[in-house]
């Protein structure tokens, strides 16, 4: 185990596996979020909270995954920077992309956004007057629906979410295919297929996630 | 044709170095890039200026000595071409050409365009070989190797160790270089015996020598004059994953491997 965290390939494997598991979380999170479209979200949240031991296990696992991904991501970036101290006067990128070269920045933006997102909808301190902890719907359930709709009617919050989602998409465009390469699952034949599938999956997530605040902002879903 | 060159000049490892401008006159399209530099150097010598120091040996694209980043691309824009095989017909009259050395912490500049690439040798010394004598050349087909494996091992063995992968990599990683050797030997029966310890010691040595980690930019494959593919890095990762859970056994065999090194 000690060898794994010291080795270059080992650290990359940790990045790949934690990244893929967090990707799975993002997929399930989006599926859960779509319950807003069917006005089920308050009931969905109730059912989820009834499963509180499971919720806490997932929270604990996610915090562990995120910490590992963050710590090793920063460590690898610092090592890589120090391995390339002098810049070229002219350097052309042949295969590297904007996404691949800015993983640390898109990653840190996502981490910062995550903090805001938790403050917004989990701790509910951004708009305390709309907190679902205080307000209930007609069924007597905590009114998440109104809290979410109220939040996304604000242009600043909408922009913040969209900008963060673009950072997440860029992170996934490189990260998804990269994780398969690191886990040794690429061959000359699979590499272009996996790269394309990664881009498509990232875009589907972007459209899925961005649709919720956008639909609320333009007034299709009303509070 | 006439060209304007911006060449990295650096007296020694301690000098800060800078780009200097030179004019190249009367260059013919048949010349190789190195021959063009020879002409420029003759001119500099006539003017009693120190000629540009650059590495070269075979000038036929197999030794991997010529280490120049030309207009931001290691070995220049042409695919699968080393500097010595890059011909001036790919340039136009009046072009400005920037020539810089490989840049990476593991490759300190010795002078001008010459860098010390011995860090790559030390990665090979760590484990890029088979420690026991495998006998003379075997009779044809006495060791049966699937055609595909033989072909892939040959593709990996094409690496000439020039370091363009490191020069191109935004992280200064030598993973493509290490992967080529690890894959080459892991695909042949003589190399498979020590495959586990080889992948461990070579990647470990890579980090010790100050190279960066691979983050899958794939710049290396695009810059490689021999077209070594990043699928070999995936192969190296597979070889590494196979060693997990075998730490005890491997570390003792790593020591054994060090014992078998010839003493200097």
What is the β-strand count of chain B? 7
How many helical stretches of chain B? 10
> Which radius of gyration of chain B do the C-alpha atoms yield?
21 Å
Taken from the alpha-carbon principal axes, the silhouette of chain A is elongated
Q: What is the second-level CATH architecture of the largest domain in chain B? A: Orthogonal Bundle
Q: On the 0-100 scale, what is the average pLDDT of chain A?
A: 94
Query: What quaternary form is this?
Result: heterodimer
Describe the biggest sheet of chain A? Answer: none
How many separate structural domains of chain B? 2
Mean pLDDT of chain B: 93
Structural write-up:
The complex is a heterodimer of chains A (223) and B (264). With 223 residues, chain A is mainly α. Chain A has one domain (8-80, 99-217). In chain A, 73% of the residues lie in helices and 0% in strands. Chain A is elongated and about 60 Å long. The N and C termini of chain A lie far apart (51 Å). By secondary structure, chain B is α+β, with helices and mostly antiparallel strands. A 5-stranded mixed beta sheet of chain B has the order 2-1-5-3-4. A two-stranded antiparallel ribbon of chain B has the order 6-7. The longest helix of chain B is centred in the first third of the chain and has 14 residues, at 33-46. Chain B is elongated. The mean pLDDT of chain B is 93. Classes of the chains: A mainly alpha (223), B alpha+beta (264). The interface between A and B is large, with 43 and 53 residues.
């Amino acid at each position: 185990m000690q060898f794994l965290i010291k080795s270059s390939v080992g650290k990359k494997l940790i990045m790949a596996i934690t990244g893929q598991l967090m990707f799975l979380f993002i997929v399930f999170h989006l599926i859960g979020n779509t319950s807003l479209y069917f006005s089920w979200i308050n009931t969905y949240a109730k059912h989820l909270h009834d499963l509180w031991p499971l919720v806490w296990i997932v929270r604990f696992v996610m915090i562990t995954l995120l910490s590992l991904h963050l710590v090793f991501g920063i460590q690898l970036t610092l090592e890589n920077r120090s391995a390339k101290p002098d810049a070229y006067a002219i350097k052309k990128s042949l295969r590297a992309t904007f996404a691949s070269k800015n993983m640390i920045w898109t990653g840190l933006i996502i981490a910062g956004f995550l903090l805001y997102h938790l403050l917004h909808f989990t701790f509910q301190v951004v708009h305390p007057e709309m907190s679902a902890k205080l307000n209930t719907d007609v069924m007597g359930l905590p009114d998440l629906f109104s809290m979410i709709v109220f939040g996304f009617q604000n242009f600043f919050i909408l922009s913040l979410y969209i900008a963060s989602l673009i950072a997440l998409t860029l992170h996934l465009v490189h990260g998804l295919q990269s994780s398969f390469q690191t886990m040794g699952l690429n061959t000359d034949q699979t590499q272009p297929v996996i790269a394309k599938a990664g881009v498509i999956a990232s875009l589907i997530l972007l459209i899925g996630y961005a649709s919720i605040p956008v639909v609320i902002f333009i007034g299709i879903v009303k509070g | 044709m006439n060209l304007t060159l911006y060449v990295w000049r650096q007296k020694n490892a301690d000098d800060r170095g800078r780009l200097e401008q030179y004019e190249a006159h009367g260059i013919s399209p048949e010349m190789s890039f190195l021959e063009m530099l020879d002409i420029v150097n003759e001119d500099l010598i006539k003017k009693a200026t120190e000629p540009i120091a650059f590495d070269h040996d075979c000038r036929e694209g197999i030794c991997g000595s010529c280490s120049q980043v030309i207009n931001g691309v290691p070995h220049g824009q042409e695919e699968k071409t080393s500097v010595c095989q890059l011909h001036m017909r790919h340039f136009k009259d009046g072009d400005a050409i920037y020539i810089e050395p490989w840049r990476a912490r593991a490759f300190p500049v010795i002078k001008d365009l010459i860098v010390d690439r011995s860090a790559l040798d030390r990665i090979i010394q760590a484990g890029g070989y088979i420690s026991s004598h495998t006998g003379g050349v075997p009779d044809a087909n006495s060791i049966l190797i699937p055609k595909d494996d033989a072909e892939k091992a040959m593709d990996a063995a094409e690496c000439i160790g020039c370091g363009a992968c490191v020069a191109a990599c935004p992280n200064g990683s030598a993973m493509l270089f290490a992967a080529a050797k690890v894959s080459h030997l892991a695909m042949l029966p003589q190399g498979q015996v020590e495959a586990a310890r080889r992948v461990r010691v070579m990647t470990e040595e890579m980090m010790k020598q100050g190279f960066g980690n691979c983050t899958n930019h794939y710049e290396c494959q695009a810059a490689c004059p021999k077209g070594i593919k990043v699928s070999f890095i995936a192969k190296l990762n597979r070889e590494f994953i196979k060693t997990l859970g075998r730490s005890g056994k491997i570390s003792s065999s790593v020591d054994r491997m060090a014992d078998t090194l010839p003493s200097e």
